[in-house]
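Pasting two entries for a bug report.
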Amino acid sequence: MPVLVITGTGTEVGKTVVTAAVAATALAGGRSVAVLKAAQTGVGPDEAGDAAEVARLAGGVTVAEVARFPEPLAPGTAARRAGRAPVRPGEVAEAAAKLATEHDLVLVEGAGGLLVRFDAAGGTLADVAGLLDAPVLVVTSPGLGTLNTTELTARELRSRGLELPGLVIGSWPVSPDLAARCNLADLPDVSGAPLLGAVPAGAGSLSPTAFRSAAPDWLAPPLDGTWDTDAFVTRHAP
């Protein structure tokens, strides 16, 4: 099944922009792409959510949401406070599987980190990946503190028997500090997974044309891009 689940090590790590970069790169390679937001929080009924932002940056993707809730909270909490039914992992998996019958690639973007709860029963994006038997790409931050959250996420994935193809740094700074530069070597070490890209900070502010043109340069060949991991690490080595 051509599904890739995309999670982050936390909030605001660049997950949506990385999803857009993966989508843009796949589109450039001639693949049809759908983007499914498992649970959109913090937006009103008529506001653009994360899936719409991916479409704006990447271009011709099919977008879908399983549910959205107005308050910027974890999906389970947001659903409860809104008095609405929560998102269930099975619903997300079913929606992704349907999209996969019509597209070459389906990107399932989570909300926050891997274990953010969808419902009172404790359903999470990890459960969705398990139901789909889909690999999980982890978006991480570059700086101090990222090693712990990245290792915890990788350990949880492996404890569930889920595939972790690699990591993408969601917002690589223009002037990386010592911690960020050291983390280029340490992130693969603590996670047991390769670096598969680094998206520049501010990439989401580029024009859609510029974003689509540059996206393949931010992602490694396993994600259909041209990013050279070894050259990038060597260039920034402390």
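Entry 2 (this is the one that rendered wrong in the viewer):
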Amino acid sequence: MADEQDRVDGRTLRGQRRRAQIIEATLAVVRRDGAAGVTHRTVAKEAGITTSLTLYYFATLDDLLVAALTSVTNTYTHRIRRLIEAEDDPLDGLARLIAESAGPGRERALAERELSTLAARRPVLRPAARGWRDTVAELARTQTDEPDAVEAFVALCDGLCAAILLDCHDADPDHIRAVLGKALRGTTP
């Protein structure tokens, strides 16, 4: 009985590792070639495995793209939830997370942006793309109960991330923090 359980757990662990390897290869292809460059063949080549193995774990291209986008957004949403739960100033933590898009987090942010934009054309990607926005809204609601301010805050965060990726230079988290705070304080016309 224990041998059978170890064998099953070992297979499960290997399967999880293989899925993660394929997802990372997918993200590498997205970063290098854009979402249009993702095929089972290009991902398999990037991962150093057979195409049939990518098809075993991800039967369709949509399955592959959803898994890649979900992987990235889950990382961001997990970090934002930790800010909500633990930070005295979650806006400062969010500003630093956004600023990472100019530095060490640039490659993953580029992949996330590319895949999130693709969600406008591929409805199957939309739930994963909305994950980040929903969690940013959750953080905003810890600061205000004004629906318009929350909506503006989410749009601002999206815009800041896009601007950082387009500008290709360091981002100032203190400046981002100030802009985020001003958006939540609101200014009425």
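Dev reply: Rendering is fixed now. As a check, the viewer should reflect this: The chain has a mean pLDDT of 90.
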